[in-house]
Design a protein that fits this description.
The structure is a homodimer. Helix content of chain A is about 55%, strand content about 10%. The first copy, chain A, has about 325 residues and is an alpha/beta fold. Chain A has three domains: about 1-45, Single alpha-helices involved in coiled-coils or other helix-helix interfaces (Up-down Bundle); about 45-260, P-loop containing nucleotide triphosphate hydrolases (Rossmann fold, 3-Layer(aba) Sandwich); about 275-325, Helix Hairpins (Orthogonal Bundle). The first copy, chain A, has a seven-stranded parallel sheet, with helices on both faces. Chain A is globular, with a radius of gyration of 22 Å. Chains A and B meet through helix 3, helix 6, helix 9, helix 11 and helix 12 of A and helix 3, helix 6, helix 9, helix 11 and helix 12 of B.
Chain lengths: ~325, ~325
């Protein structure tokens, strides 16, 4: 792959080049990593899309929502990229978009680009790869980059840390606790969308929406929120209802953050966050790349969990050994 | 300090030896670190207290609550240690117990031990030091170790990760959002105590309590909670009302977790967590102990936040430099 030519093609909107470049950043081979870094440096950072993170458990209607939302945006003349973060090592049945056929219309729209998540991934790598894929889509002049996650483990936090707006898609609650939102997520989410506000579930969706609104209001106001945010709104992806109103809310929030300087501050903070994360991950990967040290790490972990040695002492032992070997 | 003798004195309940040992684990000097490790190894891990974490913002009545709660426990024949985690670098006026006079009765109780938090601390060190102070108090046969924090930044998470039960003390809310709970904390807290349920504020405290109960019920059930938990209860530290009932709830929860095996699983998970944290922190401290590498870290961070270089690339650059120098 000629880097300069590929960079040029991506900037001019060539979809095959974009797809190949995403495959390149997904690779863990050292040679590919170097080429990916080179390509990203060539592309620069001038173009910036609106980065929207979307989390929701399987069955909540994510694919249908993204299809409707995406079609609405392309209908307004925007170019939309959809990326998926799926930290599970093997793809589970109904989990995520992997399958483009679940977004049939959007996948055939020339102004949309859908990239399924690759199988067999590790979380650390997922975060870096997804951030690099976002950068590629921005270089390719997409207006909106939508990153979806199933919200397992730390993937929600990771996606929130790479989004300008982070949305949570929920189904109407069947009862008191039947489909409660995971608590930590309330800290990071900017808007709750209660889907399936249609047919028999409509009233229930409205009530769920009111419940989450009150819950959100009970919580401490964050500096990144104007009055009334974060808020919960009801939508029906199935009947294409309320999605325009939800988009209006997103734009209101985005405009407020841009005016108040919070937008830029957030991106700066996110870059710093990922830099420190990458340094930590890089150091740890150096440590575990030494098989003798890695074996000792496992032994010490067993001793720690068995209460035979204290965590701090075990860590000091391990690190001394590592630097004695690498020094 | 003779380690074996000191260990022996601590086990026999000598308060001065305990106090000096805590000063030792607070020290960052290499020689003291080695002595502290030696002492902790001598003391073993046989005795385990009930570790209660308590978070609450200044003004919520933490000192009064701890005084009443502590006196009740010592009145029942228990020995109670109170430790403070204050990650702020300089002590702020009304922040925390630093001042033993705020817990006048408890500080004079022979079955209680109050250790103010030292000034000038860094968070990483705070967590290790506090865990080691807990270990010292356990070796000294305290039944309850209460760790309080003002809940600034990550200190709440750190305290939650070293507690068997983690409590949040709140004041009655004055209005919709006036004193909302920080969202992330709902993920980790086992019980909310709404203080100041007395005089003019009594009704308001009851309402706040009901509000938080509903909010907690809207959220997803955690495997570490029996039915009805986490719950919100109203107390008055001032009038010494409801504290016995709150203690009953804590005991119910503790007993359930012990029976279900969650208690042990949680301690094992916490040890593993702190081991990995210590390894990460240790690696990072090796990196920043090289002044040339540290200077480059700062430069690269500036470039990252200015958008001149991507986080992953900057991290790779830094780590290569570090291992080239240390290798």
């Amino acid at each position: 792959m000629d880097i300069a030519t590929t960079a040029d093609k991506i900037k001019r909107g060539d979809r095959r080049s974009l797809a190949r470049a995403i495959t390149l950043v997904e690779s863990t081979r050292a040679q590919d990593r170097a080429a990916a870094a080179d390509l990203l440096a060539h592309l620069g950072t001038e173009n910036q899309a609106l980065r929207i993170g979307l989390s929701g458990t399987p069955g909540v209607g994510k694919s249908t929502f993204i299809e409707r939302f995406g079609m609405m945006l392309t209908g307004q003349g925007m170019r939309v990229a959809v990326l998926a973060v799926d930290p599970s090592s093997t793809r589970s049945g109904g989990s995520i978009l992997g399958d483009k056929t679940r977004m049939d219309l959007l996948s055939r729209d020339p102004n949309a680009f859908i990239r399924p998540s690759p199988s067999q991934t590790q979380l650390g790598g997922v975060a870096r790869r997804t951030r690099e894929a976002i950068a590629l889509c921005e270089a390719a002049n997409f207006d909106i980059v939508l990153v979806e996650t199933v919200g397992v483990g730390q993937s929600e936090t990771a996606v929130a840390e790479m989004s300008d707006l982070f949305l949570l898609l929920l189904a109407p609650a069947g009862g008191d606790e039947l489909q409660g939102v995971k608590r930590g997520i309330m800290e990071t989410c900017d808007m709750i969308l209660v889907n399936k506000a249609d047919g028999d579930l409509k009233l229930q969706a409205m009530r769920t929406c009111a419940d989450y609104s009150s819950a959100l209001h009970l919580m401490r106001k964050r500096p990144q929120d104007p009055d009334d945010f974060p808020k919960a709104v009801a939508v029906s992806a199935l009947e294409d209802d309320g999605i325009g109103a939800a988009w209006d809310e997103m734009q209101t929030l985005a405009a407020w953050r841009k005016d108040s300087g919070i937008w830029d501050a957030r991106r700066t903070q996110q870059s710093r966050f990922w830099f420190h994360e990458e340094v930590r991950a890089g150091l740890l990967s150096q440590l575990t790349s030494d098989s003798a040290v890695k074996a000792q790490l496992r032994m010490l972990e067993d001793d720690v969990t068995a209460g035979k040695i204290r965590p701090a002492h075990a860590a000091e032992t391990l690190i001394s050994k590592f630097f004695a070997r690498s020094g």
